[in-house]
Design a protein that fits this description.
The structure holds two protein chains of two kinds.
Chain A: E1 4-7, E2 22-25, H1 39-47, H2 51-73, H3 76-93, H4 103-121, H5 142-160, H6 164-174, H7 180-187, H8 191-209
Antiparallel strand pairs in A: 1-2
Chain B: H1 6-13, H2 19-27, H3 29-46, H4 55-70, H5 85-110, H6 132-141, H7 162-168, H8 172-186
Helix pairs in contact in B: 5-6, 5-8, 6-7
Classes of the chains: A mainly alpha, B mainly alpha.
């Protein structure tokens, strides 16, 4: 019969958020897969020198960060660049991440700042709203999907034409479901200014889209 | 009663309008129309997805990001991050070169100046009584060779502290060779 022992954690590191002491059997102590760890544990593991833990963080959050960046610039190559820059900055600043907010919130904050910096340096090209054709050859319902994708493309193009702060406010509120108070912190605004930006963003979006959604 | 302000219309969209103001909405067509006009682009935005990158695009993204991260110091080093190998390795090389040259200059001075051609770095630079030796060992001991890509896959043991042991174990001839290699890398001409 395998002897039981009290273990901190299998391996040489002790991730945050994991019970510090628990009883396990030495012969069948489970080696945790990175995919099973929560974000806080992955951050701790990364800071402990496990580079693959950061890869898992990227794998877990890259899609949402990419979507945020894509919506900001409406261009896939620039979105990929901005996503990469977001994770590089996250890597650099990971030791400063204290876990007061969710890791996803922290990453969104970095992504928005990366996007705002980019548009401050360079005016990104935007496509005309009414001139777009979007074809998805893999669609199962070609007509329905085409209409839906064209509509989505028109909305994305319109969002990309909003002034940067209105755009950031709209994206964080609508797609990241971030409260106005948190958006105010991210953008360095007051809550009143955030609500005003959101109001004007919707008004401008309505104007850019016309009255037809 | 006054119409809803912009921030109140935003609160309305969030379902957070104060009850007293919600009562106004029931009697004011203008505010209801304004709220509906704001709801339209909001619904449109919520329904607009983003094209998903293909697996190949994600793979290229991962490769590029990995390369970018490799060039960065470890995130756990804090203010010590300037000691990361990409920074420390060239500094260490330069430090070794400076020590070697300093010792050589001492030798030149002892021999009576720069009149005669002398080797910039010779075996004489390795002297048990010289300050250069312990300083060199200290500099190289700070290196964590496990972070240096050149050792990846070579089978060489590169755990922290290995560089210190390696240097401490060098013979006089091996150390002179190490200096020469560093000089070659730095473009120092041999006599």
């Amino acid at each position: 019969m395998a002897a039981e022992r009290t273990s901190n954690w299998p391996g040489t590191w002790a991730p945050v958020g994991v019970p510090v002491s628990r009883t396990v059997k030495s012969s069948d102590a489970p080696i945790p897969r990175l995919a099973d760890l929560d974000d806080a544990a992955l951050v701790a593991a990364t800071l402990d020198g496990r580079r693959e833990a950061f890869d898992e963080i990227v794998e877990r959050h890259r899609r949402v960060v990419y979507q945020l960046c894509y919506r900001f610039v409406n261009q896939p190559e620039d979105a990929a660049d901005l996503t990469q820059e977001t994770f590089v900055r996250a890597w650099r600043g990971l030791a400063k991440f204290r876990g007061q907010a969710a890791l996803s919130t922290w990453l969104h904050r970095i992504a928005v700042n990366v996007c705002l910096n980019r548009v401050a340096l360079k005016r990104l090209p935007t496509e005309p709203i009414d001139d777009r054709q979007f074809v998805d050859p893999g669609a199962r319902d070609p007509h329905g999907d085409l209409v839906r994708d064209e509509r989505a493309a028109r909305v994305r193009a319109a969002i990309a034409q909003l002034p940067p702060k209105q755009r950031a406010t709209l994206l964080l509120r609508v797609y990241q479901d971030m409260p106005h108070e948190e958006i105010a912190q991210v953008l360095g605004n007051t809550v009143g200014a955030v609500k005003a930006n959101f109001f004007h963003a919707l008004g401008n979006l309505r104007r850019l889209l016309g009255e037809q959604p | 009663m006054t119409h809803l302000r912009p921030d109140e219309l935003v609160d309305l969209l969030d379902g957070a309008l104060a009850p007293g103001r919600a009562a106004h909405l029931e009697t004011c067509d203008l505010c209801r129309e304004e709220a509906a006009r704001l709801a339209m682009p909001l619904d449109a935005a919520r329904g607009a997805g983003v094209p998903e990158p293909s697996e190949g695009e994600w793979a290229r993204f991962s490769t590029r990001l990995s390369s970018a991260i490799e060039a960065e110091p470890s995130p756990g080093w804090g203010w010590l991050s300037w000691l990361a190998p990409p920074v420390l390795v060239p500094i260490a090389g330069l430090a070794v070169l400076v020590f070697a040259l300093a010792v050589s200059v001492d030798r030149v001075a002892e021999r009576g100046g720069w009149g005669a051609p002398v080797a910039v770095v010779t075996d004489a630079a390795v002297d048990d009584e010289s300050d250069a030796w312990p300083a060199l060992v200290e500099v190289l001991a700070a290196l964590d060779l496990s972070e240096v890509d050149a050792f990846a896959g070579t089978g060489i043991d590169v755990r922290p502290g290995v560089s210190e042991r390696l240097v401490a174990g060098l013979s006089r001839e091996e150390f002179a060779t190490l200096q020469r290699l560093i000089e070659d890398e730095a473009g120092v001409a041999h006599p």
